Here is the input.
Amino acid sequence: MTRVATAEENAMNDMPVIHGYDYGTARTAHSPITVDELRMLEQTVGWTKADGEAIAMAAEVLAGQEEAMVDSWRSVIGEHEHLAKWFFGPDGKPDETYKAAVKKRFVRWVADLCRRNRDQAWLDYQEEIGLRHTPAKKNVTDHANTPPLVPLRYLMAFTSIVVTTAKQFLAKKGHSPEEVERMHAAWTKAVMLTLTLWSRPYTKEGLW
Amino acid sequence: MTRVATAEENAMNDMPVIHGYDYGTARTAHSPITVDELRMLEQTVGWTKADGEAIAMAAEVLAGQEEAMVDSWRSVIGEHEHLAKWFFGPDGKPDETYKAAVKKRFVRWVADLCRRNRDQAWLDYQEEIGLRHTPAKKNVTDHANTPPLVPLRYLMAFTSIVVTTAKQFLAKKGHSPEEVERMHAAWTKAVMLTLTLWSRPYTKEGLW
Here is the structure.
């Protein structure tokens, strides 16, 4: 029986193939976190039905701006050697091939954060993203030779940039200050939710 | 030689003694993080001179509102057993003595976040706060018998509440939307900075 894809499915699938973007595939890590535990985390960040509506609005507003957002974050990273060096090759210079490969997935992450259903496949890919910042999987996807880690301190602290700078992009399409505020709160909650999941592989046994 | 205390010193010291509030004392853990590393983290959250001015304004705006903020957060915690249970005694009921003791320090944390200079004493106390959420030091200060941990997942995810709900308190004293916005961005950065430091004792060797 042939099923007609929904508009949303088309929006998710109608993207160029991105190397290493293994969302929903068997190549992705399996998260040990259950969907029930995810629901508890959603409650913990304060996620509500209104946030669901606001993040759907944000998905529309940010559509087409994803790369500009990542460019603005990359620009901050490039200003500080303690942030940039995790992208350096053995020659002490930025590995541009690796940077470009990661960037495509980072851009896609912006869209996914606003659009994806939070189910087991979503959990699994958050686990995968976390692992790709640790020695377990950094460099593996892209056969790169950069340092084997992005230290948790920088992953966490940089989230502040991802949260605070998003507002200007959310305000670019003429929405009211109240709408921008609601979208920004939902964005903040969504970012904190994924950051929390990414921290799992960094954490000592039993403490996460 | 007698030195006259500055207004700020009076503001910091003119508080009732809070049990376990060991800021700047030898009872506090020593952070292995240096002030130079802290400066790199400040850059990573995007901290600027303007944020320093905005957080000083926030200190004034939030003065007297600290307890109401903590009450609002405690109210969210109380709504969810997966958040509340870390305050439960062996009888499965909230340990009200422990809750009251922790609350005084939580209230003080709001003021400190806006007012304290970020030096080694500040770093040391962030380390101490982190440890007090882990088996190394939870319950010790208050001789309590609650679970030995607040899991990192909840410490991190709940930060979203602390960030998003602060805005209403920052808006309560008649500042312009732009001023509230600047204070809220500085608040977000400051919260992410302390959260990052609190995560250190949770993290596997070499990954923080």
